[in-house]
From TrEMBL:
Superkingdom field: Eukaryota
Lipoyl-binding domain mapped to chain residues: 133-189
One Pfam family from the record: PYC_OADA
Organism annotation: Monoraphidium neglectum
Uppermost EC category: ligase
Annotated EC: 6.4.1.1
Protein name: Pyruvate carboxylase subunit A
Gene Ontology terms describing biological process: gluconeogenesis
GO terms assigned for molecular function: pyruvate carboxylase activity
GO CC annotation terms, alphabetical: cytoplasm
């Protein structure tokens, strides 16, 4: 591999100031990992490298602080004060102090947004409603046999689950129309987790 040619391509793509000899070697040895790393740097700047490893991997707790060395002899003291409510846009305000000066910044909180979606998807079935079908046991979904809008008859297979090397078919308790399917192949459901629902069971509805 021609490292000089690679260095030229990297500098043309990312800029001369961001590419070092170490970066060239990293790109040569681990091209995909390096590309992901540079995508992160281009979005957040290379100052992310200045964060201590623990602060980068584990979010700070309220009133926890960290010392960041920006350059030799130049540092800043950061203390997290609070995080605001999650907005419908998936963003929240973060309040902190930089060298004792109060600051606020709005950030995207994708992990929390994803968690809210997963929580909504994994709600329990309503056992008081005949058409609300839940998982009879904890296990993994290995087959989804129906889709929303599909008509089903009593006893028709809806989902197949696997637990402890045993497969179990989850069937419709009555005839109806599937209104929701709240799972996908490979998802792990707790006991009672809701696969979905239908309309038509004694005028009841799956929820």
């Amino acid at each position: 591999m021609n490292l000089e040619s690679l260095e030229s391509r990297l500098k043309e793509k990312y800029g001369n100031s961001l590419i070092t000899h170490r970066d060239v070697l990293s790109a040569a040895l681990y091209p995909k990992v390096f590309e992901e790393y540079m995508s992160h740097v281009m979005r957040y700047s290379n100052l992310v490298e200045k964060l201590p490893t623990r602060a980068f991997l584990v979010p700070l707790a309220e009133d926890e602080d960290v010392e960041i060395e920006l350059a030799k002899g130049v540092g800043t003291h950061i203390k997290l004060k609070a995080a605001g409510e999650l907005q419908p846009s998936g963003r929240r305000e973060v309040f902190f102090e930089a060298n004792g000066v109060p600051r606020v910044v709005e950030v995207a909180d994708t992990r929390t947004a994803d968690a809210l979606v997963k929580k909504a998807v994994r709600e329990k079935s309503d056992t008081s409603i005949l058409g609300s079908v839940g998982a009879p046991m904890a296990g993994s979904v290995i087959e989804v046999s129906v889709k929303p809008g599909q008509g089903v008859h009593a006893g028709q297979q809806l989902v197949v689950m696997s637990a402890m090397k045993m497969e179990t078919a989850v069937c419709a308790p009555c005839a109806g129309v599937v209104t929701q399917v709240r799972l996908a192949y490979g998802r792990v459901l707790p006991d009672g987790g809701s696969p979905g629902g239908n309309e038509g069971c004694q005028n009841e509805s799956w929820r």
